[in-house]
Amino acid sequence: AKEKDRNGDTPLHIFLCEKRSVSKDALNVLMAACPEAAKEKDRYANTPLHIFLYENRSVSKDALNVLLAAWPEAAKEKDRNGDTPLHIFLCEKRSVSKDALNVLMAACPEAAKEKDDTPLHLLCLSCENRKKDALNVLLAAWPEAAKERDSNNRTPLHFLCENGSVSLAGFQSVLYEWLKAQENRSWQSLMSLSDRPRIQKSKKELLVNVAHLFGQDNQNRIPPHDIMAHFISTKWWYGAWLVIQRHPSIVKSMNLQTTTKAAFLFTAGKRLSLVNMAELIKNEPELLEGV
């Protein structure tokens, strides 16, 4: 288990390189025979963890745990291209498991902050299975990644605009963080994204509606009531609060039932600033009835 071949590869390297489905039991046998093999790098500066993530399309949480238990620092190591195991996992995989992603993130949370192409960029670009859960794991680790730009001045949202497999909910999660940058809250920024090639209709409509919230007054502007209706129909509640922030008087036309007013104010108080709350109550004093 300790010997190397003429290429400098250990049996562990070869096992992880040749297999398309890694057995946890077989991996445990090799690791028990030579635990230090987990730290051996091949001629390309790949650790066994790198090789495992390069070569296996189906990454099991159990196999990851075996390799990381033997050498937790492997999650921080970089190959000759400067890529961490997290980069390799997101770049090479065609289906990203939330469980496997959580294992890698727990082993090295700071890997989420690697630039120029952040892990969030790679997830949005290279993997077919871009479910909301996987996006949220990376956003929770480093929300600012949504605002980071690569060497071509693209944010992760640029890639999602051209990604037909991403869900609208996942797109909304990244858009939420992207909008926290003041420079992104402009007609030009939002409309340029909506004009990206291959963007799906649902994403385009979402961006256009947000753009009209921050655009200048003009005759063709979408009315706030229509924007609110669109956000509610797509269950994007942050968007609904954006409409209220920009147009507090819109609450008058929402026809809230008396029994829901207290809950509405409670939720609004967590989302809106004191200035917005004061204007909201000023425009709709009936909200205070029964509160």
Automatic annotation (TrEMBL):
InterPro entries, sorted: Ankyrin_rpt-contain_sf
The keyword Repeat appears for this protein: yes
Domain of life: Eukaryota
Source organism (scientific name): Ditylum brightwellii
PANTHER family per record: ANKYRIN REPEAT FAMILY PROTEIN, PROTEIN PHOSPHATASE 1 REGULATORY SUBUNIT
GO cellular component terms attached to this protein's record: plasma membrane
Listed name of the protein: Uncharacterized protein
Swiss-Prot/TrEMBL keywords: ANK repeat, Repeat
